Amino acid sequence: MVPPLLTAKIVAPSTNARVQKSAEPSTPHDLKPLFFLAWLLCAIFYFFQYAVRSAPGIMQQELTSAWGGNHIGAMISAYYVAYAVMALVAGVLLARYGPRHTIPYGIAVVGIGCLIFAQGSEAAGMAGFVLQAIGAIFAFIGSSYVAARYLPARMLAMFIGFTQCLGMAGAAFGSKPVHMAIDPAGSFQIAWQYIWIAFACAGFVLAVATWIIMPSEQGDSPSHHGPLSLASLLHPFKIVFGNVQSWLAGIVGGLLFLPTTIGALVWATSFLHAGENMPMAAAATDASMVPIGWVIGCPLLGYIADKIGRRKPVLIVGELIMLGAGLTAIYVPPGTLPPFSVALVLGIASGAAMIPFSMMKETNPSQVKGTAAGIMNFLVFVTTGIMSPFISRLMVPQGTPLTLHEFQDGFLPLVGGVVVAIVLSFFIHETGLATKASKAPKGSIAIPRAAAT
Fold it and tell me: Which of 125, 165, 199, 284 lies at 20 to 30 Å from 366 by C-alpha?
């Protein structure tokens, strides 16, 4: 059993307590238009970076022709390495300097990366794509940070869900319109370099708009976290990593992402086509219902969690539905149920994976929200990075196409991951407002915010 954690004992040293308490802004009770617009611009940034991130996959033929070989795999691997490492850095920068002095610069860095990519060479493409990763990490972390800092706490999970919803929409935008623009048999026949120039221009406009709109408060200054030093930089990590609840939220979130990021987006089409003998076009269509379900489930489950003021019931019910839908998709004989409906239910229930992101922020002190968001993203990416090659090894065909039984064996770790997530979820402390409204029991994390400073 996870021991109770005394949050008040792991917060900033007593010498800085008075400074932090006075500098920390209170969470608004009402939704203010300016703060909502600030969040919306961050969410649009998340939409934008997803469109940019998915574009190289649509340009594979053009890039292979220009570079003399297909190096998309290596480029994407470098992107995610940079993205995961920057998740930790971005969280610290947000916590120390605030969103106005970080997020617009992140957008501008993505724009610069797009301009470099447009130069045309393989080296420029690799450098530009990695630079895009360095800036792109500020999209989701920044959006969730702004939501946690400036928007009503009762709506946090819903806004984080809407952010993820826009990200999925951005991935779609980066596919169809880009393909239509560069298709040599289409009506536009635009050179792929001009697509990146257009992305860069859009990024610079968004960066300026975000810098103008984003609020700047006293708590966004370096003095909020004391003098700049190695100790002050490491202190937020000590707080978050020293909190057992942070590890639980991060591991649960990472495990719940796997059925979508690995199972659905990577292997679902092949599973339906080769394993269940479905035509490729129909298999791709049915597999696409999972991310469509995410677009529905992320804001929907976030709204329910905010409405009832509790995170754990929505999280656990979503996990159970995920488990049931996953088992049905993998092990129920083909033809028993329509695959598209099972995939849609799985996608909607997968929206529960965003709830631990809210819990990660709520279970840690307010002044380390940025660091908590960065660590959460880091743990999710590390989980995916560990499991992805493991699943791929299980799925490697031995000279013949994979059979249904081999697909089922390969998906077992994903099913087991959801089971582990369900078990761990019972040990996560409830962080919803309904619990915080009542008197917190001794040793609980649900203590008044002022006491944590």
Answer: 165
Of 261, 236, 399, 410, the closest CA to residue 331 belongs to 410
- The structure tokens 């209170």 sit at 26
User: Residues 86-113: pLDDT tens digits?
Assistant: 998 998 888 888 899 999 999 999 999 9
- The CATH number, out of the four listed (1.20.1250.20, 3.40.50.720, 1.10.8.60, 3.40.980.10), of the domain defined by the range 1-24+229-453: 1.20.1250.20
- Beta-carbon count within 10 A of 121 CB: 13
* Among 253, 208, 215, 210, residue whose Cα is nearest residue 373: 253
Q: Which pTM does this prediction carry?
A: 0.74
| pLDDT for the residue numbered 381 | 83
Q: What is the DSSP string of 39-82?
A: HHHHHHHHHHHHHHHHHHHHTHHHHHHHHTS--HHHHHHHHHHH
- C-alpha dihedral (306, 307, 309, 315), degrees to nearest 10: -60
CB 25 within 8 A of CB 217: yes
Say which CATH architecture domain 31-227 belongs to.
Up-down Bundle (1.20)
Phi/psi of residue 389, nearest 5 degrees: -65, -30
